[in-house]
Structure formats: C-alpha cells, structure tokens
Write a structure and sequence with these properties.
By secondary structure, this protein is an alpha/beta fold. It has 13 helices and 17 strands. The structure holds pyridoxal-5'-phosphate (PLP).
C-alpha cells in the first residue's frame, strides 16, 4: 500500500472516531524541527501557523525538550492542595515580565478568560455588595468556546446555537471609544478586549482607543481585562502587546505560546483586582501542575536568554516590508494589518483557496482569520530567509 493510501485510510478512520467540529486539512503530521513540520509521508512543510500561534520556539527545540523530559521523570501532577517549584518559578517570571501582582495558572486560554470574568464579577460584588453586574465586550472579538468565554465573543455565528448565554454582556465596536462610553452604567464591572484582535482578522487596538478605555475604566471603577492569549508572549514585538501602548490592564489573559506547546494558560491581575477573589472562589485540578509549569518556565527563560523579543522585532519588520511589497503589487490584497509576527493580509479573492493551495501545492502552512484574512503567525524563531521562502511560496500559491 502506498503512503498516500495509508494517509487516506487513516483520515477516513479519524473521521469515524473524532467528534466532527472541524473540517481538517488532509495532512497527518508526525514530527517537527525548527519552523518545519513533517507529515507521515515524509513531506516537509514550512510552518507560518505555529499550531495557531502556540509553538513560539518552533518544534523540538533541544533545550525546551530536555526540560520537559527532565520534569516528566520527576513529577507531573500533584493538585493545587500543595506547592510546586516550577509553578513558583514560572509565576515569578511572568509577574516580572508583565508588572502584574498575581498569577493563576489555567489549562487553556478559554479558562483564563473564565477566571478573568469571575474576577470582574467578584470585584464589583465586593464593591457594591450585590450581583447583577454587566460586562462590555467588543464586536468581532474572540475569547474562547466555553459558555462564559462565548458570552463575551462578538461573533453571532459562534454564539447563536448556544443561547441563552451569560446575561449582562453588551457589545461595543472595537476602536470606537464613543460606542464603549455609550454602554457604561452603574452596573458595569469590566471591559474585555483583545489588544490585537486575532481570530477576527488581525486588528490592533488604536492607541487612542486603548488609552481612552483605560481612562473610562479608572473613572467608573471598572476593570480593564486584556486578552493577550494570541498577541501576547512576544508575538507583537513586546512581551505583551499592551506594553507598547503605555497602559496596563487590571487583568490579563495569556495562553497559546506560554507553554511552547503544552496546554497552559494564565490570568494575571494587579492592584485591587489581584485580591478580589478569595480562597474557595476559584480552582482547577490540573491548572499549574509541575509539568506544564516547567515548560512555561523554560519558555520564559529562553525568551530572556535568546532575546526573542529583539528577534521578533527584526523579523517582524522584515515580514512587514515583504508583505507591504506584496500588497502593493497585487490588486487582490485589500489590506495589510498587524505588528511583529502577528500580521494579516485581507484579500478580495477567497482567502481559503489561497490557504488550501499553499498547503497542498507549496507545502506552506498558513491559517485563516475572519474577514477573508490570511494570518501570518509563524514560530517566533523564524528567520528572514524563512520569510523569503514563505513569500515565494505565497506568490506561487496565488
Ligand atoms: C485562542 C484564543 C482564545 C482561546 O484559547 P484556548 O486555549 O483555545 O481556550 C481566547 N482568546 C484569544 C484572543 C485567542 O486567540
């Protein structure tokens, strides 16, 4: 049987086993090295998706892999009834990198959002001595698929089949301060948004807007929750994208690249938000276990040691230049947006076709985002040469 038949059969089997909530591409990946992935037929792919902005260090980084192996041989899990050193180490580094006061480790981005929403409700409950508080979220946003995170996700297509969702959530327009102001009342407890909208099509917050929302939150004793799950961890060229704006959130959500591939997220809080929840208010069985925290700790250590931020700024600028040239010479490009290594090209022709041809004909992994956008979120260790190779393949795929 040929390798091709083998793949076909395996995929048919998968389609009978796995719950069908995805239309997957017909590729089975087997292993990776650096910014390249290899399928079970031995084909090499250049990866500009990084498992949806997760694998910041690329694949099979020797130092990172050794840290996982070492921790796996010591201790995987103990529960949050006890302390573990990797959680303290990873937490300390995260606080230092963000200037936040406290961290709570979760298993995913969605759970980080859930925790952040609970802080907001708890904060306002402490403030007013009653419940019934409202949250302002953004249209075109994405915060996850659980019922709470979905409640603040501004996408009707994702929401509608699961209604009714959390009451008291109202939607403003991203980058329209007046639309946020119009929703504030004495019951509002928080504003939640992505610093750079990811799934929605790579839309960075305007500086005026983010500063305006920060002021609005201060004046009305509301929490500003920034979702940095996709744009954080160095991807924008700042460790956290808000650090480029001169504002600080009260609560921040991280995940995706935090663990370099193991499932870990976190919410971080500062000031009064950092003490709003008390023992018994929130918990998780797996969250912050020694295995995933050893991974995050190593990721954060490598970021510092290898100066990943500088690297992202340099390659991000190069990617920007190359995509600008591409946009200027292709009439089918409607817009080019983003920062660092989170950029998007919005097309006037179906972007799904470009992504599909890039994969099957050019062995280039690209991922889509809303509004007919192709998203460029490669491993953060990508080089200018990789960018050149990607551009060549993109050109051919088009
Ligand atoms: C991916 C993502 C989430 C959800 O994270 P999961 O780990 O999939 O639960 C939330 N917010 C943003 C901005 C994301 O990109």
């Amino acid at each position: 049987m040929s390798a091709f038949d083998d793949t076909k059969q395996t995929i048919e089997k998968a389609e009978q086993i796995l719950y069908k909530t995805y239309n997957r591409f017909p590729v089975i990946f087997d292993h990776g090295k650096g910014v390249f992935l290899y399928d079970t037929e031995g084909k090499e792919y250049l990866d500009f998706g990084a498992g949806i902005a997760v694998c910041g260090l690329g694949y099979n980084d020797p130092e990172y892999t050794a840290a996982l192996e070492n921790q796996a041989g010591k201790l995987l899990h103990i529960s949050n009834l006890f302390y573990n050193q990797p959680a303290i180490d990873a937490g300390e580094k995260l606080l230092a990198a963000s200037g936040m006061d406290r961290v709570f480790f979760t298993n995913s981005g969605t759970e980080a959002v859930e925790g952040a929403l609970k802080i907001a409700r708890r904060y306002a409950f402490n403030r007013d001595g009653r419940g019934g508080h409202e949250i302002i979220a953004m249209n075109n946003s994405f915060h996850g698929r659980s019922l709470g995170a979905l409640s603040v996700t501004g996408n009707d297509h994702y929401r509608e089949p699961f209604a009714p969702l959390l009451p008291g959530v109202r939607f403003a327009d991203f980058n329209d301060l007046e639309s946020v102001k119009a929703l504030v009342n004495e019951n509002t407890c928080a504003v939640i948004m992505e610093t750079i909208q990811g799934e929605g099509g790579i839309y960075p917050a305007d500086a005026e807007f983010l500063k305006g929302v920060r002021d609005l939150c201060d004046k009305n004793d509301m929490l500003l929750i920034l979702d940095e799950i996709q744009c954080g961890m160095g991807r924008s060229g700042e460790m956290f994208a808000w650090q480029g704006y001169g504002v600080r959130p009260d609560v921040m959500c991280v995940a995706k690249a935090l663990g370099g591939g193991v499932p870990i997220g976190a919410f971080l809080a500062c000031g009064k938000a950092a003490t709003a929840m008390v023992p018994g208010d929130h918990g998780t069985t797996y969250g912050g276990n020694p295995f995933v925290c050893a991974a995050a700790d190593k990721v954060l250590e490598i970021f510092e040691k290898r100066n990943i931020l500088d690297h992202v700024r340099q390659t991000g600028a190069y990617l920007w230049k190359r995509l600008e040239e591409f946009a200027a010479s292709h009439i089918c490009v409607a817009d080019h947006r983003g920062k660092g290594l989170i950029q998007g090209l919005q097309f006037t022709v179906p972007s799904a076709d470009i992504i599909s041809r890039a994969l099957t004909e050019q062995n280039l992994i690209l991922i889509g985002a809303a509004n007919n956008t192709v998203r460029f979120v490669p491993p953060l260790v990508v080089t200018n040469d990789d960018v050149d190779e990607m551009m060549e393949k993109l050109e051919k795929a088009l």
